[in-house]
Specification:
The complex is a heterodimer. Chain A is α+β, with helices and mostly antiparallel strands. Chain A has helices at residues 31-44, 95-102, 120-126, 133-136, 164-170, 205-215, 254-257, 278-282, 288-302, 312-316, 346-359, 399-415, 430-437, 439-452, 461-467, and strands spanning 9-13, 20-26, 48-51, 67-70, 77-81, 86-89, 107-108, 143-149, 155-158, 179-186, 188-189, 194-202, 221-226, 238-245, 268-269, 273-274, 306-311, 334-342, 366-372, 385-393, 419-420. Chain A is globular, with a radius of gyration of 22 Å. The two termini of chain A are 29 Å apart. By secondary structure, chain B is an alpha/beta fold. Chain B starts with 25 loop residues before the first strand and ends in a 5-residue tail after the last helix. The chains are: A alpha+beta, B alpha/beta.
Amino acid sequence: MSLTLDNTFTQLENFGHSLRAPSYCFHPTRAEEIFEVFCLAKQVDLTVAVRGAGRSYNDASLNGGGIVLDMSAMDQILEWDPTSGLVRCEPGVTLKQLWQCVEPDGWWPPVVSGTMNTTLGGCLAANIHGKNNFQRGTIGENVLEFTAMLPTGESITCTPDTNADLFYAMISGLGMLGVFTSITLQMKRIHSGLIAVDAWPVPNLSWHLRGLLEQAPHYDYIVGWLDTTTGGKNLGRGQIHAARNLKEGEDPDAHRTMQLTYQHLPDRLFGVMPKSLLHYFMSPFMNNAGVWGINTAKYIASLRKHTFRQSHAEFHFLLDYVPSWELSFGRGGLIQYQSFLPKETAEEAWREMIQLSHQRGLPSYLGVTKRHRPDKFLLTHALDGFSLAMDFKVTKNKRGELSQLLQDFDRIVLQAGGRFYFAKNSETSAEAARAFLGEEALVKFKKLKQRCDPNNLLESDLFRRVFGQTV
Amino acid sequence: MENNLPDLPKPASSSRTLATPLYPRRRGIIIGASEGLGAALARRLAREGYTLALLARRKELLDALCAEINQASNEQRARAYAHDVTEYDKVPNLLLRIVADLGGLDLVVFVAGVNYPPGGIDKYNFENDRRMVETNLIGAMAWLSPVAAMFQSAKAGQIVGIGSVAGDRGRVGNPGNNTSKAGLATYLEALRNRLTRHGVNVLTVKPGFVETKMLKAAQGPTPFAVSPAKAAEDIWKAMHKRKQVIYTASIWRWIMLAIQHTPSVIFRRLTF
C-alpha cells in the first residue's frame, strides 16, 4: 500500500466558518486513486466523506477525525459540444469553470447556485436548486448521465433510465452512496449575454408570497429579498427580482455581450477599492442594530419599481459580489436556516417564525425567498411552495438560545408540512429528518446504502447527525 | 445561560458526541488522567465543553472519572482508554482510534509522570531512573511526536506538557527525576520552536508541589503546595491565553529564578 495518512491531517471548515473538523485529507486526480483511498480507509478502519468546494453551510463535507476526499483536483471538462450543448465534466469542475466554458458559445448551465465556486459533484450530492427551481427543477433534473465509483470498487453508470434507483438516490445522496467520477449535463441556450430583470417592492409577507406565486410563471427566474428585521404590519416586506432570458434578436449587441469579458464581476468598488477588503468594513454593522439599519435602507432603496438588464454572471452569483463576505460575521461565523413550505401554509408559519426570532432578540440578518416545485429525488428538499433562507450570526453567548430557536423553527416547519435542505441547515436532528423524509424514503436509502457501501465506509458528520452513525 | 442549553439530539446508534456550529466541540486527549492533576484537568476542561479522551493504566479509575464527568454534563464528554505510556508501539494506532472517536483533535495534554526518589542523597537506583525517563520523557515523546506531526500539517492545535520545577536544576535529591523533567522541558521547547510558526501552541507547565499522592512520596517540607483543582485552573487560564511556560503556584517562577541563578560553587554544596 503506497498511500498513508502521513501529512494529510488538515483543518477543514464549513462555509460559514462556524465549524472546524480536522481530518485526513486526500486529493485524488483519477478514479483509481479514489479506490486506493477506500482501501486505505478499510485497512485503518476509518470512514470517508467526500468534499467538493466546501461551500455548504453545515457539516456535509466534513468528517472530523476521519478521511475526506477533496475532489477539487478532478477538475477537467472532458467534452464540450457547442452544437448540442452537452458537456461531460469531472466532479471537481466548478460552476465558474463550466459557465466560462459554455457561455461564449451561447449556452448557460441550466441550474446554478448563488455562488459560482461550488463543484458539480457537490451540486449533485446536495441536488442544488437555483432561482429557476419552479421552471427547471433541481440540477439533478438536468443531468443526462453520471458515472460513480462505489466503495466496493465498482464503477457504475446511471441515467434516468438505467440504474434509475441509484440515479435518483445518488443525486441528493450527500456523497453517501458513491463518489461521482464524471457528470454529463445538458446546457441551456441563451441568445444574449444579458438577462432582463424586473425589480419591485413588496410591502408585507402576504404580498411577498403572492408576488412569488403569481409572477413566477411569467419569468425564468424569481427570487425575493425579505427584510427579516422588521415585524408588525410590515413583516415580510422586501423586494422581488424576476428575470427572463432574452429571445433571439432582443439584444442587438448579443455578439459583444456574450463575450466572457462582459460577464465579469468587478473586483473593485467604485473602480478603486478592492472588494476583497470589503468584509472588514461590513463587520462593524453585523449586529442587530446595524443590520436593521442596512435592511431598512435597502427596503427604502428598493421602493422604486424598475426594469434593467444585467449580465448572467451578475444576476446569478450574488454571493460572489463581496469576496469572503462570510468573514464579516465575525469569529463565531454564521449559519443558515432554510425551510421549504407548501404554498398553503408558508405565510402563517414564517410569520410565526419571524415573530419568534424578534421576541427572542435573535433576528436573522438576511432573508431570501424562492419558488419551488417537487421532484423525484430520494432525499429531496423541494415541494410545491416556497423557501425562506435566513442567515444567523453565531455568537458565543447566544449559541444555546439560537439552538433553542432553531428547534422551535423545526417544530413549526414540520407541523406546516415543510422540508429542509441538507446543504444548508446545520442543526436538523435525526428526528426532524425522519419526520420530513418519511420512513419509506429512509428505508429505501438504507437498502441502497447497504448495496453500494456494505462496509459503511462513506460517512460524513452530516450523515452521522441526520441518519445516526450507521444506517 | 448554561441552564438554557437544550438537550442535544442523540441518534440512538451514535456513540460520537455531535459537533454542530451551535455546539462546536473542542476535542482533547489527556494522557495520565486517572487521578491528581490529570483528573482535575479533565474535570476543568469538560466544564469548558471539551470532548475528552482520558488515558491511564488503571481503567477502573478512569471509568469512574468518566461517569462523574458525563453525569455532570449530561452527555458523553469523556471516554476512557486504558494505556501504559511505556508501550510506545501502541501509540500510533491508539491515537488514530481516539481521533476518530472524538471526531478530530484540538488539544493534547501529557500529564503522565512517575517519581521514584532514591531515598537519600547517597543512594543510586538505575532501575528507578530508567522508569522515570521512560514514562516522563520517552512516553511524552512517543505521544507528542505523532501529535506534533498532525498539528503541524493541520496548522492548528495545542499541546500541553506537564513538566516540573524539578527540571529547572539538577539537584542532589533526585537526579533521575530532574533529568526526565529537564528533558521534557527541552523537548517541549523544541516543539514550540518548530510549531509556533504553524499556528500551534505548546505550553509547558511547571508545577511546584501539588497535593497528590506523588506529594506524599516527597521527602522534606512541601511549601506552596496547591490543590489539583487550583493547578488545573491555572493551566486552563494559561491555555486560554496560549501562554508558553507557566509555574503553578506562580511564586515558583521567582523561586526557580533564584535557584537557577545560584552559582554552582554554592549550589553543589547544598543538601537541597
